[in-house]
Structures are given as structure tokens and as C-alpha cells.
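Task: fold both queries, return C-alpha cells.
Query 1:
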Amino acid sequence: MSDIGAIRDAGPIVRVFNPCHGDQAMRHFTFISLALALTAATQPTSALADDQLDLTLEPDAAPAYKLSYEEYRLEELERTSKRSRNALIGTSAAAAVGLLLVIPAASSQCSSVEVGGESDYQCTSAGDTLLKVGSPLVIGGLTGALVSGIILGVRKGKMRRLNDSFQPTRTRAVQWEERSSRFVF
């Protein structure tokens, strides 16, 4: 009989909240089911009546503080802007690797040949391979860097506006104050 079958035979169905993911969750589930199976095997059957079986598993302790919506939003924006920054770094690195492959291939492995009044490029097999591998890296890396840079800028702007709503400060721009008829810095 499997561990799950022993749990089902042991009594009422108990739902377990487990915040763990992946292998750790499987280890916890296996350990709990093994403990329940051993408990069920060592107890007399009369002690396993539905009203006597008290199995309570509590989730990990919740954080001691509660966040307001603005604080939660700020933490979420910080987390997502960190992800966007990492994407910007990764795609920029991919573009740099692509350029490191394309530039030497184009400069030393390829040559311009004029045939019938039209110029054409002929590359060696190594140069052709480097261009085929490097060109998508350059195009994809630059496109990804552009997109993730825009997303990062938008998220940083939202964070800045949210921080300004917490502690409004005077603007740094020069403004015309009508009451005193002068520029205010």
C-alpha cells in the first residue's frame, strides 16, 4: 500500500498548506505521509476513530507586519525593476557577445568582391558561421536591451512618483509664482 493510501485509510482527509515548492515540497510531503503511515500502523484501530484523530499542521509564521497598499506596491515595483535591470544586463551581454563574433568575422573572414559592376561579399566557411551565429545575437540582444530599458525606465518612474506621493517635495524646476510676480527655484 502506498503512503497516500495509508493516509486515506487513516481517517478524514486533511488539506495541508505547504508554501514550499519543488523538491523541498516533495520531501515535506513524503516525510508527513511516512509519519502518518507509521502513526497509523502503531496505533490500535480503535484509537483511529474520526473524532479522536486530531491532525493539525500550521503553515510557517506570517510576517509580523502588514504593509499598506502603497508600501506593497513600492516593494512590488522594486522587485520587478530588479528583474528588468537583470534582463537589461543579460540582453546587453548577448548583444556584446554577438558583436564580438560579428566584427572579427566581417573584418578578417569576409571580403568584398565586385562581379559585373555589383559588389558582393564572400566569406570563408568560418566567417559565414560566425556571421550566422553572431547576427541573431546582436539583433536579439539589442532588441531585448531596448525593450527592457524602456520597461525599466517606466518602472523607475512609477517608483519615483510613488515615493514622491509618500513625501511630496517641491519641484526642482524653475516656476513662476504669480503672488510675488517672480521666479521661484
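Query 1 returned. Query 2:
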Amino acid sequence: MRLDIRFSSIPVEELWCEAVVIPVIKREQLLSGVIYKLDQKLERHLQGLYKEGFFTGAKCETILIPSEERIKAPRILLKGLGREDEINTDDLPLLIHEMGSIMSRLGVIDWGIHIPEEIDFNAINPDSINISILEMVAEYESVKTDSREDYIKIVFSLPERDISCLKDIKYIIYKSLIPHIQVSVI
């Protein structure tokens, strides 16, 4: 298995990949920040889902919607994180694993994930990220078919403030994963 992990400040809606994951915080006004920009591109589709109560950002809510070529990725996976006071930085590795599991079952090998500003990526223990990545790779290997490429690419779309602090985290992730799988971390 080959794994390509990338960290970027490019907005998730600008990523060329098969699918993007948008973790959503439950708020009275669901549509703010990245979600608001995405909803504008989707011609207020997310606002309609929210008003109908179909997707509110509640913890564990998950919905897959087509982008209908309004963003670069053809599929959008929205994942509810719950209220802001329910969010814990320790939840991110679990989210990575869970989203990898879903992407694996969908046959998606090239995907991006938006990291909300409310999550301080640099406060997360790199070892827990590594464990979740290895578990995610195991999910991909468990559903691997002969017709499927032996390659996964994940792009983490982070706030600019987190990008400048990633050198140590990227090195730790690379060094701990290299004995287990072929990996590049950019």
C-alpha cells in the first residue's frame, strides 16, 4: 500500500480529488465560514438541508451529496461534530479513521478533509493520528480488489495558522509510518 499525505491551506472546495470531507459544527447558524462558502457554490443546497432538519451538524450525522460540478470534487461528505463545546481535539484521529473507512467502502482513494478552525491541529498527539491512519489503511486493504489501485491520497485542508507549525508533526508522522507502509508526507 502506498499512502500520500498532504497538508495544505488550499480551501477544500478547490481541491482536485474524488471526494471532500467537511466536518460540520452544530450551531444555530449552520452556515458560517467554509460551510457558507460551500453553500454559495452549491446554490444554497446545504441551507435547504439544514432548514428541513435533514442535516444539522449533530454529532455522528453523516450525509454524502453530489457536488454537481459546482466544486472540483464530485462528492461531498458532511460529518456532524456536534456543538462546539462537545468537540475535543482527541476526536480528530477517530474522525480520520471513520472517514477513511467510509471512503474505502465507497472506493474513493483520493480525498481531502477540511480541518475546522475550532480544532487546533497542532495540539493533537501525532501518535494518535498515526494510529488512525494505520487503521484507515487496514480498512482499505480489507476491501482491496484486483481492479483497485494500491494507492491512497489524503489532503488535509488546514487554516493558514496551522500550516506554519507542521514541520515537526509531518516528520513524526512520516517516521512512524514508514516502517509499516510506503508513505510520502508533504
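Both queries returned. Flag for query 2: The CA atoms of residues 57 and 80 lie 4 Å apart.
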